[in-house]
Amino acid sequence: MTPAPKDAQLHETPLPATRALCRADPWLRQRERVIWEPACGPGAIVQALQALGHHVKAGDKYDYSDRWRGRKGQRVAWGKDFLSLSPREIPKHDAIVMNPPYSGGMADAFMAKAFDVSPRVYALLELDWIQGGEVARARDQLMDSPYWLAFYPFRERLNEMNRDGWTGRITPHKKRHAWFVFGREGRADGPYTRRISIKEFQHG
């Protein structure tokens, strides 16, 4: 298994960001969903979902087992590149919840793959991902379709999402973020939109 290189694009998801999503989203408010996190890193999203009563399957291209934050003893598919998985390697699940890598078109590639293999996808993305254009056709196809179910932009900046290994001062994040939700069942009247906040989850 390959340890994560310095350029692995790991920006761990703050626990309050996942908790705020689960509070706002009716589908995730129901416990014991089977969730797949295919780019789990050390397990920040996994930890939050398990604490809320969900069953979480996890994997990552790199090995973060020495920093694992999910349930002790959990089997994690380390060394599995999500974009290269064959249909036989896709675990049974109800939804994907992920914070994919962003640069180099990776977010678009992860989103296209996720929606291809999963009935429902939750992705933490930079807010400007909502912009499409000719260089982002896969993005346009998703967001201009009835499969865009919900959009949860954060009121605050997620200042804790610095690149892994950052030891400097925590300053306001340059980007704003939102949870984007897509599902096969579709929504004829466009995505449900609700601003969410991390404040009430920051001290507990």
Automatic annotation (TrEMBL):
InterPro entries: DNA_methylase_N6_adenine_CS (IPR002052), SAM-dependent_MTases_sf (IPR029063). Transmembrane segments: none annotated. It comes from the Bacteria. GO terms for biological process: methylation. Signal peptide: none annotated. GO terms for molecular function: methyltransferase activity; nucleic acid binding. This is Methyltransferase small domain-containing protein. It comes from Hyphomonas pacifica.
